[in-house]
Design goal:
- There is one protein chain.
- The protein is α/β, with parallel strands linked by helices.
- It has a single domain, classed as Ribose 5-phosphate Isomerase B, Chain: A (3-Layer(aba) Sandwich).
- The protein is built from six helices and five strands; from the N terminus they run βαβαβαβαβαα.
- It has a five-stranded parallel β-sheet with strand order 2-1-3-5-4, sandwiched between helices.
- Strand 1 (about 5-10), helix 1 (about 20-25) and strand 2 form a beta-alpha-beta unit.
- Helix 2 (about 45-60) packs across helix 3 and helix 4 (about 90-100) packs parallel to helix 5 (about 115-125).
- The longest helix is centred in the C-terminal third of the chain and has 17 residues, at about 135-150.
- The radius of gyration is 15 Å and the shape is globular.
- The protein starts with a strand and ends with a helix.
């Protein structure tokens, strides 16, 4: 059995669901690592996104980022070469992000209700990576863009 390593980052707005998400992942047998930075009103979400992305790349894991909207975290994450982050709002988004688009990180709002957060997590971590030729072809085109336009 392969144990998936999941890296988590929560800014000061995301912290309200932090314990629930950590406990849910641990109860379901995942290896969880949480960004060690302090959470307070002056924290900066790019710091959490950077930590998660570096660890996802270095340890071949998955990342989950939680803030007030998921938007800022996803923008930051997508600046890192090799990271494919999707802002998701429900389980279907999480499934599609991974199965069609090869996402290795997701970002979402801490304002989503906890049962939907569980659904998002389940769909993200349990969904297989893309295998259909059309999805793989599109991902290759994304990687080509990343290589051509990223500094």
């Amino acid at each position: 059995m392969i144990i998936i390593k999941i890296f988590l980052g929560f800014d000061h707005q995301g912290v309200k669901v932090k314990d629930e998400i950590i406990n849910y992942l641990i109860e379901n047998g995942f290896n969880v690592s949480v960004c060690p930075f302090e959470n307070d009103e002056t924290d900066d979400y790019p710091d959490f996104a950077k930590w998660v992305c570096e660890n996802v790349l270095n340890e071949k894991g998955l990342g989950i980022l939680v803030c007030g909207s998921g938007i800022g975290m996803s923008i930051c994450a997508n600046k890192v070469k090799g990271i494919y982050c999707a802002r998701v709002v429900d389980g279907n988004d999480a499934f599609t992000a991974k199965n069609h688009n090869g996402a290795n990180v997701i970002a979402f709002s801490s304002n989503i209700n906890i049962s939907e957060i569980h659904n998002i997590i389940d769909n993200f971590v349990m969904t297989k990576e893309p295998t259909e030729e059309r999805h793989l072809r599109r991902i290759e085109k994304i990687k080509e863009m990343e290589n051509n336009y990223a500094n």
